[in-house]
User: Fold this.
Amino acid sequence: MSDSEICSTTGVSIGDALLVCPIVEEGGRSRQVTLPKGRWYNFWDDGVIEGEQQVSLEAPLERIPLLVRAGSMIPMEQGNELMLHIYPPVEGSSISSLYSDANDGYGESRLDKFRILRSENNLEITWEEQGNYPFPYAGVKLHLHGMKLQQAWVDDAEVACQEQIIECDRLRRCALRHRFHKLRIQGEFADILP
Assistant:
């Protein structure tokens, strides 16, 4: 099977977290895709789709079909803040990393590692950092997908949550170092919601 045939049936993988499913036929507004193994979230509406099956994805002109693998963390910069989009693993744990440097490929750098651990009604996210490059963001927010957020604790202190977003920088302890060591989240996972 050629690369073009693989692309036309499964989409294009970007790393192990994202699956982009471009429309390859003129005028197409949906796309048949054979999904790889695992659980996938629709990036645009958080719909949950089980892998290893063929599905039809809607593709209006304003957005390309994009899926996120369960267990992934997608970092996005918003102004001078870091937004971490968290997609819980189906079970057990997963690890995601974020590399930062001065964008020149030389000198100091940093590697931030995030371990996401799922248990019955909880997620625990731990953050470890390596390197001397300063953390380049003024604050950190987490956007939780695939789970109805009920309560959250940053370094054992309860924090207020708005909808599915946890604002770490509102905690004075966290804002001073722009990070947390451990974040614990309690809620209901999408795969077990009625």
